[in-house]
Amino acid sequence: MARAARKIATAAAFGGGGLTALGATAYGLLIAEGLLARKAIGRPHGLDGPHSDGVYGAHFPGEPIRMAMLGDSTSVGLGMTDPARTPAVLLANGLAAVADRPVELKVVGKSGAPSAELAEQVDAALPMSPDLAVIFVGQRHHHADVARHSRTPSGQGRAAAA
Question: Angle of helix 143-150 relative to helix 153-161, nearest 10 degrees?
């Protein structure tokens, strides 16, 4: 019985070692492919989308609604070449049409910004005294980061001010 157990343990050790080597090889291959893809595609984070700040629905009467756009690459319209197709401008135009008022848009988002950096964006948006703030945060970000920050005294002041 002990002899059979030793054989099973030896086979498992050698088999497990083979699987470990296979896993390490696959991991190395994925890393190499990622590096090659990054070299071919480039690194999009840190790039800006098209300039989208401005007044939309200017033909409507009344004082503009001040709207700030915060978040990551979606908020800046990364990948878009026409500002009219960015999420910020689409929202600003839609809001202007529904409210029958112009909308002054200020985009303070940053491509690649994690939710933990939203406080900096809030600080950048506050000088315009926004009536409305839209936050686009990608799925890779954790809600706990935002919740944890909003419980701090400075986070609560920023949230109340925004």
Answer: 100
What are the tokens at 90?
Answer: 């689409």
Tell the residue number behind the tokens 């291959």, with chain if given. Answer: 29
For residue range 16-41, list pLDDT tens digits in order.
Answer: 555 566 666 766 677 777 777 666 66
Which H or E element spans position 122? helix 118-125
Q: How would DSSP label each residue in 35-64?
A: HHHHHHH---TT-------EEESTTS-SPP
Query: Residue 32 corresponds to which amino acid?
Result: A
pTM of the model: 0.60
Distance CA 134, CA 158 (A): 14
Q: What is the residue whose two structure tokens read 């409507």?
A: 60
